[in-house]
């Protein structure tokens, strides 16, 4: 069985960040359950390119390569810090420049980090509706990690949620046909049709 690829989108702003820590935990748990290659994208590394894309209407080569990786991925892990009771502006901006159909039917696990557990509802009132609008298949379990979850290396409740969400993502990926770029030579235009087009 060939390996699938998942792309991990981390919108953490610091280095290291709790957002990246949660992203890595979810990626590692998914890889234990399903044969997947993992690619991590730190959005802070592409912040200027994302902003320029809004102004020019075109992505830089580096940003286009990331967007293409997301389009071709078999699954997505999307993690953001919570600011003002919602996802970060950088996180939203990235998905604003992504093609509107890029996530259609794609399995996604959503997660977030914040200073207090009271911000956890942002996953359900902000993130899940956004991915539903983009026609992604969002795993039932979302994962929120508050500051206290990291105080002792992450409590067992967080670990349980990570494992459950990873299991759901792995199952969704395994049930879905592998994503691959269309082969322009797979269904060539018949020679007679090409001749007819030239004669017209």
UniProtKB/TrEMBL annotation:
Looking up Pfam families in the UniProt record yields: FMN_red (PF03358)
What EC number(s) would the UniProt record show?
1.5.1.-
Q: Which domain of life is it from?
A: Bacteria
Q: Where is the NADPH-dependent FMN reductase-like domain?
A: 6-150
What molecular function does GO assign, one term? oxidoreductase activity
Keywords assigned by UniProt, alphabetized: Flavoprotein, FMN, Oxidoreductase
Q: Does the keyword Flavoprotein apply?
A: yes
What is the official name of this protein in its record?
Answer: FMN reductase
Lineage of the species this protein comes from: Bacteria, Bacillati, Actinomycetota, Actinomycetes, Pseudonocardiales
